[in-house]
Give the backbone structure.
Amino acid sequence: MRGKKLSEPDLKFMHELANTPRGGGILSCIQCGRCSSSCPIARITNEHNPRRLMEMAILGFRSDILLHKLPWYCLSCFTCLDRCPQGGDVGEVMFAIRNLATMEGNVPEGVLTQARSLMDTGCVVNPVRTIVMERELRGLAKIAPPTEDVQKILRKTAFNKKIRHE
Amino acid sequence: MKYAFFLGCLIPARELSYEISIRKVLPALGVELVDMKEANCCAPFSIQSLDYASWLALAARNLCIAEEMGLDILTLCNDCYESLLMVNTVLKQNPEVKDQVNEVLSEVGKEFRGKTEVKHLVDVLHDDLGVRKVKDAVKEPFTKLKVGTQPGCHLAKPKRLHLGVEWGFGALDELVEATGAETIEYDNKEMCCGGPLRGIDDELARPLVRQKLIGLKNAGVDCVVTLCPFCFLQFDLGQLEVKRHFKEEYNLPVLHFAELLRMAMGIKLEDWEIKSHRIPLDSILKGRL
Amino acid sequence: MLLEKTAILVIGGGIAGIQASLDLANRGFNVYLVEKSPSIGGRMAQLDKTFPTMDCSICILAPKMIDCSHHPNVHLLTYSEVKKVKGSVGKFLVTVLKKPRYVDEAKCTGCGICTQHCPVEVPNEFDEGHGMRKAIYIPFPQAVPRIMTVDEDNCLKCGLCEKMCEAEAVDLDQQPEEVELNVGAIIVAIGFDLFDPSGILTYGYGRYKNVITALELERLLSASGPTGGHLIRPSDGKIPRKIAFVQCIGSRDKRFGNTYCSSICCKYSVKDAVLIKEHTPDAEVCIFYIDLRAFGRGFQEFINRAKTEYGIRFIRSSPGEITEDPMTKNPELWYEDTVAATIQNLAFDLVVLCPALVPRTDAKDLAKVLGIEVDNYGFFKASDDMINPVDTTVPGIFACGYCLGPKTGDIPDSIMQGSATAARVSEVMMER
C-alpha cells in the first residue's frame, strides 16, 4: 500500500466500525504493533498488516479498506487478539470489517462459492457422488442437511441480498 | 456420558475415516453419541465474515437442537467448535441479541434457551473422561512413534473464550502421549496452518503450511496428528500442493487424532481408510511404531 | 507539645523508609526501622547507576544506610516482620517478630570467616538468582547491619561456621523473638516487586537464558554483582554486542490486570542502554517501545543524547514474540517497525525485558495487619490521592515510595515522599 493514493477519509468510519457487531475493539487500539508482529500472514506478504489496517480504520480510510482485498487476507487465527494488551480485539474487528465489506459487494470468489453452496444446499461443503456411495457402502448415514430451514433463516436475515445471490 | 454429536460439513463429506474412527473409539470409551438429526452448517469463518446475524441464527439453530435433545454438543472440527461456542457464549451473555436471534429462529420453529454447553473432542477426552481413562483403553500402545501435533488455532484461541478450562494446546499432546507416542516440539507449532484461506487464497495458505512442514521435518517427527479437518486437508492434500508449487517433498504422513487413538486401542484401520490419506501411511504402519 | 522521644515505626528499609527514618530521627523521634530482609537498602542497593546523574547507586545510598545504623535515635530491626498492630494514632501497640539469624548480633563482627567455610551454595536473591551465596551470608558487601544471617531453609546444621567463628557469635539454637513496640505513628515503605515475565509465554522468559529482566541486568552491570560488573550473557558468558530492551512487559496490559504505566521503565531503560554503550561502545542497542514516556527535567534531552551521541536505536514496536536459535541461544524478536511499517525478525545476543512494577506479594497481608486499604491493583491506598497523598486510610499510618503505586516516579520521588511522611508524622505527633 506504500505510495498508493488513499481516498478521502471518512471521519465517522471509526465509530461506524465500533458500532458494528464485533467491531468495538477499534476504540482501544494504541497502535503498538504487537498484532502485526505476531500475524503469520503479515510475515508472508506486506499487503497484510493488521496494525496498519486498524490505523487506516481509525483515520477513516473507509473505501481503501472496504473496497479492496485488504480485509480478506486474515485467517482468523486470533493470535493478534490474544496478544493485544489493550483489548483491541483485532481478530474480531476484522470480522466486522469483512461484514461491512460484504455490504459493499467486496467478497472473494472462494468465499462466495461457499456462501452459494450454503444457500442452495444448506451446507458449505457437500459430499461428491463417490463419497455418497462410499458412505452407503460403509454403513454411514446419508447426509441430509435441512436445506429448507437454512433457506428460511437466510431469507429472514436477508443473507442472499447481502451477498447478491437472489 | 452422552452427547449430541455434531459432525459438521467437512468430515462426513471428505474424511470418512475420521467419522468412523470416532464412532468406534468413543463408545468403546463409554461415551454415547446421539446423532443430531437435521443439524445444519455451523457457519464457519467464511460465513461469519459475510454476515453477523446469519451466523448467529445458523449456529443457534444447532444449539436449539441439542437443547431439545437435552444434551451437550460434542464437536470434532475446530471451526465448528469455535463457531458454536462463540454463539452460545454471546447469546447467553446478551439477552437483547438473544431476543433478536430468537425472532429469526421462530421462522423455523426454534427457540434458544441457553441450556446446552459446547464441547470439543478434547474437552471430552481430556477433562470429562480424563487422560487416565484414555490411557487405560490403550491396548496396543505405540513404542517409537514421534508425533508433531497440530492442535489448531480455534481449539484454544481466543483465550478468553476458554477461561476456566485448564487444558489448552498442551491437552492434545497429553492425549497423544497417552497412546504411547512421543510428542515433539517444532518451530511454529502454534502458528496457523492456513486452513481458513484454503480455496480462498491458496497463494497465502500454502506458504503457511509449508513453514510448518519445514519445522516438522527439522524436528524429525514420524507423522503429524491433527484435530481439525481443515488442518488435516492442509497437511495431507496440502503436502501434494506444496510439492507442486515449491518442488519440495516432506513425506510426512498425517493422521487424525481419532485414528491414532483408534489404532492404539487395537482397532485397525481398513485398507480403504488407509488409502484415503494422500500421503501414504506405510512408514507408520509397517514397523507399527 | 512534643512527647519526649516519642517512638515511630517505619516498615521497610528501602530509600523511602531510610529517608523517613533519618528525617524523624533528626527531629528527635525514636525510630524503629523494621526490615524483612537481613539488610536495609532495598531496590536502590541493587541498582548499578541512577538516572539522571549516572552516579553509582550504592555510593549515594550507603552513607544514608550507615547514618541509620549510627544514629542514636534509629533502632534497626532487620530480618524482622510486623505481625500484629493494635491501637490507634498516638498509641499503637505493634508486635514485631525477629526471625532467628542464628547469629548473636551483639557479638558478630561481620568478618566473613564463616561464609568462607560454609559448604552450602544457593542462588543469591539479591543478585536476582545470577550469583551464589552461602547458607550463612551477608546479602551484599555494603549490607547494614553487617551481621551474618543463617538461611535456615538451606542450612545443613553442620556447625562449621560455629567452629570457625572467633567471636563465638554463631548460635544455632537461637529462637525467634517477639518484640512489643509502643509507637505513635507508623510509616509503610515496603516498595515493589517485579512482574514475573514468565507469565507471558510468547517472550520466553524462564525458558531462554538470554532473556532477562532489567533488574537482573543491573546486577550484571554492578561492580559488586555476580560478574564484577562485566556484562556477560547468561548462556555462555560471552560479551553481548546486540542488546534489545523491550518495554511494557505486563504494564499497560489488560490481560494481566496491570493496566497502568509503571512510570519509570522508559527512564531506566534509556539509562541502562547508555550504560551498556559505555561498557561496550561498539554494541548495538535497540529499545522497543510503545510510547516513550519522557516526563520531567532532563529526560527528553537524555533521550536525544542517547540517539545522537550513543547511537541507540529507538524502535516503536511492541514485539509479538521472542524465539531462540537452538544453536547460538540468541534470542530472536519478531517486530513491526510501526513507523516504517516493516515486519521482521531480528536476532540479538541479549534481550532485556522491562517488567511492570507490581505490589509485593506480602503487601496484602501487611495491609490486613495494619487495617489499611489497598487499591484495585494491590497498592496501598492514600486517604485522598490529591490532598492527602501520603496518608493511608487509617489515621496515624502513612505510606511512601512505590508501595503507594505507580504515581511514584523514581528515586528522588521516593525520597521526597519519605520526607513528606516524616513531616506528616511530626505534625500529627505535635497535635497530641
